[in-house]
Amino acid sequence: MRQALGQLAHHRLRTALTLLGMIFGVGAVIAMLAVSEGGKQQALELIEGMGLRNLIVEAREMDDQTLKQVRRYSAGVNVRDAQAISNTLPFVEDWAGSRRFRTWTLFSREGDSRADVFAVSPNYFDLSSLEASRGQVFSDTDDLTFAQVIVLGSTAAQDLFPNGDAIGKYVKVNHLWLEVIGVLRDRQLPDSQFEGQQVGGESNHVYLPLQTGLARLKREELSAELDTIKLRLDDSTEPVQAAQAIDHLMSRRHSEQNDFKLVVPARLLAQHQQTQRIFTIVMSAVAGISLLVGGIGIMNIMLASVMERKSEIGLLRAVGAREIDIVRQFLVEASVIALIGAGIGVLLGIILAYVIAAFAGWAVAWSIFVIIIAVLVCVCIAVGFGVYPAMSAARLDPVSALQSD
């Protein structure tokens, strides 16, 4: 190891240029895998809000003229649709409806907010993986009795009640005063798109019971009763197959009017993973090419080193060094180059991953196993490309090598 480091230090510029291929190769691998793993974890967190075992029926947006024509045959997505699906299809375990209301005022005696207002079924929170950090969510009884209660997202609670606890206080939504009974735990998910679907953002939402909202808040003319219906499937049913049955039932109930659409979170996750897999393959190929270039650079520097050290090799052979000793020495030198390049490459990859995350808004996640694999691949490539120069050095004729100077 000392001899290897001495040889590399003797030709610093040449060694530095040789290291670049390994540095960029390992750096690219580390950064790519960190971003890829971060994207995978973020996708799972986002899909958790939609529910991997859920199906979502959404009211389709249409222009006024088309909507008037459709309403002659279909009332739009409504509570009766959800009840019919639940009662007809045995693989549907539970359902929850939601409706977003347009608001012109949302305030308390301590502050105001621009949060979105939703009327939802009581089990909406369970199907959306939402839970209260303070207080509680409303119950079936609250929904059936048109209770004037409300649950706040964490950001909305901070805006409406900046001076203290919101539980037991009142919020006015349009003309309706509602008592705050709970504040949701912040899942810290981005309010963003996932495969074309809006996800996250619950922290700036407020929720009141579905029947309260439908009875006491004004809806737009001709609009559907519900914006979405979330359906939870049992574990034995494939979501794609279930979607076909639900689509058929909904189409018959809506007189074949195209006023709804089905969202299958499991399918969205599969599409995202396929896109991410292609990205990973492309980036791995680029990083692999960089590592191969680095391996060629190592072969080049070692061949040059063999030519420069012929007399040294001849002297070693003359005093009893075996061929395997010469091979071992040159392979150690190749490994040292690889380890140095890999070490710097890991640092570069970490920096590069955070730079990409900062500019692109992506998440990063680290795995020690992945870093170790990247370093081992780097060393294996270096050793592989170092075998030929090492064998060439070992096979030199000792007498000819001693006379080379």
Structural class: alpha+beta
* Major sheet: 11 strands, mixed
Which series of helices and strands comes N to C?
HHEHHEEEHEHEHEEEEEHEHEHHHHH
Averaged pLDDT: 82
Q: Level of helix content? A: 55-70%
Poorly predicted regions are none
User: So how many helices?
Assistant: 14
How many distinct folded domains?
2
- Outline type: elongated
**Kindly, what is the distance between the CA atoms of the first and last residues, rounded to a whole number of angstroms?**
26 Å
The value of Rg in angstroms is: 33 Å
Beta-strand fraction estimate = 15-25%
Strand tally is 13
Task: Please explain how this structure is put together.
The longest helix has 44 residues, at 265-308. The chain has 14 helices and 13 strands. It has two domains: 2-46 and 271-402, no CATH class; 52-264, no CATH class. The radius of gyration is 33 Å and the shape is elongated. 36% of the residues are buried. It has helices spanning 2-10, 12-50, 64-70, 79-88, 124-127, 140-144, 154-160, 210-216, 239-253, 265-308, 310-318, 323-360, 368-394, 398-402; strands at residues 54-59, 92-101, 106-107, 116-120, 132-135, 149-152, 170-173, 176-184, 192-194, 197-199, 205-209, 228-233, 260-263. Helices cover 56% and strands 16% of the residues. A hairpin with a 2-residue loop joins strand 9 and strand 10 (197-199). The two termini are 26 Å apart. The strands form two sheets. Strands 1, 2, 3, 4, 5, 6, 7, 8, 11, 12 and 13 form an eleven-stranded mixed beta sheet that branches. With 405 residues, the chain is of the alpha+beta class.
